[in-house]
Amino acid sequence: MVKAARLHDHDRPLVVEDVHLPTPGSGEVRVDLAFGGVNPVDSYVARGRVAADGPMPRILGGEASGHLNGRPVLVTGAGLGSTRDGVWAGAANVPEAAVVPLPDGAGLREAAAMGVAGLTAWQTLQLADVQAMDRVLVLGASGGVGLTTVSLAAAMGATVWGQTGSPGKAEAIRRQGADQVVVTDAAGLADAVVALSPTVVIDGLGAGFTSAALSALEPHGRLVLFGTSAGSTSTVELQPLYRKALRVLGYGGLILSDAERLAGLREALTALAEGRMRIPIDRTIPLQRVNDAFRLLTDRAVSGNIVLDLH
Q1: How far apart (Å, rounded) are the C-alpha atoms in residues 58 and 83?
Q2: Any idea where the domains of the chain sit in the sequence?
Q3: Which residues contact 260 (CB under 8 A, 6 or more apart)?
């Protein structure tokens, strides 16, 4: 028996209860879990906006860290928490393909957020082909992905500015290595970043932020869109796109192949172990308070990542 956070009905609080863990099936291994990453997509699953036809009841959680035969590992992907039981539990039977060994120097707490925040930061900067001479603007820089992206872009040698709508979160962005922080909404963004003249924008906000960022980009600039937390609709002036030879690139983490995900995770975990990427953990919450984690995400009350203590 293990303690696990289970979804019984959409739009209802998760229930932390004892669950019988059967013998691992073919192609599965049992992992003793330590910390579980909490991401917006988990709340979408709980509300039925993602994987609404998944089995019920089921354990939620798409990523966690722990030990397999005494070795530290990350567990992520393979439909965990959506099409099958997830990993917000004391232990879990997971597909072997979902297990990624941790390199020396990668801590369990930070690794628990690597399957989403760490991988997204790594992949978006690779997609934008960020180089040391680039000037990178990170939108929504106070979030889990944003803060991680700031740290990695700074380690690459780029000039990095971070945007936030909250003055109280500016210092967290600076601590991750941002050269400057702009506190602005979408309407003021273009004017706020004139001095930067960005060559790359990493955009997890969408809505008016995307159109404003495109207007601010330098010729031959690149914008990578990975989320739309501010809104999924934007009105874009088309002439600047071709007159400035801009590139708009979409990053879809949910459709990565197993091989793409594994390759990206290995590289991102190496960056974490070497200190080139920093995963900021805002707070660690006991599994019993998993529903508090959802409320914190909804209220945007954190700077960085939330992890669950699964011990």
Answers
A1: 9
A2: 2-113+279-309, 116-253
A3: none
CATH architecture of 116-253: Alpha-Beta Complex (3.90)
Residue holding tokens 């760490």? 118
Q: What is the pLDDT of residue 258?
A: 86
Q: What does CATH list as the number for 2-113+279-309?
A: 3.90.180.10
Separation between Cα atoms, residue 156 and residue 163, nearest integer Å: 19
The predicted-structure confidence for 25-45, as pLDDT tens digits, reads as follows: 999 999 999 999 999 889 999
Q: What is the tens place of the pLDDT at every residue in 224-241?
A: 999 999 999 999 999 999
Residue that the structure tokens 């979030």 belong to: 143
φ and ψ at residue 67, rounded to 5 degrees: -130, 140
Give the residue from 59, 54, 50 showing the smallest Cα distance to 94.
Answer: 59
As a whole number of angstroms, the distance between CA 192 and CA 44 comes to 32
Task: Return mean pLDDT, the chain.
Answer: 96
Which tokens go with 82?
């959506």
CA distance 248 to 227: 13
